[in-house]
Amino acid sequence: IQALARDLRAALNSPVVSFVESEVARMLPDDLVVTQFDYSQPGGRPQVDGLTLQRKEAISPDVVSFEFDRQLLESESYDMVSLVSTATDEDLRRAGTDYYSSITDHYLQLPGDLPDRVRELATRLTRTAETPLDKARAIEAYLRGPSFVYSQDIAAPPGGVDGVDHFLFESRTGYSDYFASSMAVMLRTVGVPARMAAGYAPGRFDAKSGLNAVLDSDSHGWVQVYFPDFGWI
Asked: pTM for the full model?
């Protein structure tokens, strides 16, 4: 989208307004359509100020979060039902990379000032990986390696630095959020849609009550990777 916007600005620098809509339609990728043009008339001369684009294909359903409709009291019980994928590694290797545009629009985004060495590290780690799953496994193995230390007793990154870059190359020490955000960012740099999820691990099961006790210490952050036909894994 950013590249398209640059091309449109260059091509439509000072066009005759009556030709703008047909010129934009000619330049659009096949899966985009214009839903609105915004015009103004500074000094009495009409000009295009902006436009709104929409994907032609339907947006794939995407569960982003679960939220309770009220605050739960301490020791209050609740039930949740979740679905766990039974896809095997071979299933995921065969899933391919035919992603919905709604997935790539959101889950390949990266900050424009991401340090180059983050991209270079991810590229080096996944150089021999043939599928998105293999790329994820390679980055996961690196972050589980001896170069990194898990700890909750750490200082925040210094101001003005990229948090992922600081964790990967300077501190190499952090808790789940640091590992998960670093893996998600590195996967995005090599074209694999990924996101970080935050919530709670299942807690500890109590045989007497038949319940799991979920404590504040069970809070956790983890990585989800998108695979066509299988969703978020």
From this structure: 0.77
